[in-house]
Amino acid sequence: MTTPTLAVEVLRAPRAHPANATFLVSIGVVALMTLAAIFAPFLAPYDPDQVDLAALHSGPTPAHWLGTDALGRDILSRMMFGARTALLGPLLVVVSSTVLGILLGLLAGWRGGWIDAVLGRIFDVVFAFPSLLIAIMAVALFGKGLVAPVIAMSIAYAPFVARLTRSLVASERSRPYVSAYRVQGFSGRWIALRRVLPNVTPIIGAQSTLNFGYVLAELAALSFLGLGVQPPTADWGAMINEAQAGLVGGYFLPAIVPAVAVVIVVVAVNVIGEELSDRIGGAIA
Amino acid sequence: MTALRRVAGKLGALLLTLFLASLLVFFSRFLVPGDPIRFLLRGRQPSPEAVAQVTEQYGLDLPPWQQYLSWVAGILQGDFGRSLQYRQDVSTVIGERLPVTVGLVVMAGSLIAIFGLIAGIVAALNRGRMLDRATLTGLTALGAIPSFVGSIVLIAVFAVQLGWFPSFGSGDGGIDTVYHLVLPSIALASVFIVLVGKVTRSSMVEQLGREHVEVATSRGLKRGTVIRRHVFRNAIGPILTVSGLLVAGLLVASSIVESAFGLAGIGSLLVQSVDRLDFPVVQAIVLLVVTAFVVVNAIIDILEPWIDPRSAAGAGAR
Q: Within the 149-178 window of chain B, which residues sit less than 8 Å (CB to CB) from chain A?
């Protein structure tokens, strides 16, 4: 019985699945947001912190496409600069939690035994702390901003990645190709890192893409609570926090624009993640 | 006998998890480099009385493991130390704010149970049809709205624009409080309705495809009876498990919703205490949330064989 490795099947998979429109639009949305974030200094029509006392709480006008906030700052420009922290934070968390989680999961799944048992117990304890709670605790210890929450959330998300990696690695270990390498005298570490790891990475990658959306929403929530990125820095969550006072006065735009942006990015990232895991899942089945 | 041993084992695991979690909550402070007194009194006048109080409260003149033991011993007697911002006992400060959070979580929990189950059951019974796809799309859309965005939108539409509900505070008690908590509980419940709805659907769909359901139907039992006795009863295990996992999420998300709606509960107290550098209160609330989560999950775990006897049979066969 020759089962092609996962990597081969994933490469084959896209042909079986014609790209659907939602998926492509989602990729477009994320690409657009990323470009807006990177090139914000060149694209933004105004300085994000520039106060215009003549245009406080202006609605959408030709001068200010998305209006201005309570201090007369241009919302579109603030959105572009705000996309930087909004996207960079989750990116750092997803990358570091994935790397950490893969290492721990590989260790637990490949070695098994007491290492597996100890790591499993540690993961259980971390699971009892919701990621947002760990982030809040980190702020209480190390102060407000993006650094402490990003590190805390990386630790909070790593066990999810690790548990997935562990189960995948444990089932890969009993596949014929692993024993084939063993018989040929390859070391366990070499097989684990060079053959097993590449086979399980696509599934973990798809899962991590889904995590990106959750992390983005949680980091934005933290800034909304006033514990994350601090005003006057333009950040989506912090913008909503600042705009909250104006809501009661009927000034919805400064709060709604960043809120909608958060939802759009979360939806787009989730669509991409679901589609990726569908393709990979289809390839395994 | 085996049931007793199983319960004892679960209780042991519960205590171990609680013990490890308490270690984490207590010793997290040691991650901060430098003088603990300076950390605890950040942003405050380090007057001799304040220094003496913090030293006494945390037993800073003792070795770390004794500090931990006296902290735990205090907590077991309901003594969480003193709040730095209120100059009151932490337990008093938390006790005053607990009713609002409990009310909010109970109302949100009811919404989650009602709408999550209805959405899941409706979708499952119409699986593959329009109504199923519409429900799933609706749930997915709802799931993409974080609770702080939900709060903002609800305030803008139903409090400011339409003026149907208040946007701030928890009212004067009784029915007025319920009225004040309507929008917050919707904001809190929405994301979790999605989870319960999706799990209910998939768990029901799985049961609907089983042979025993076909047998029951072919024996001529009424559809309602089949759904209630043979499908839903069997599908309830995963739904309960997910509900247990929601507890911690609900409590943490309540800090967002309470802050957005100006409710004086323990969620907004947590945020405010972080903001005002009141570490004893932060520590106490984090420990409470984690304890609630671990205990609720242990209860569900322990009760499972009685709710779903198959899980006990499966465990025995192994």
A: 149, 152-153, 155-156, 159-161, 167-168
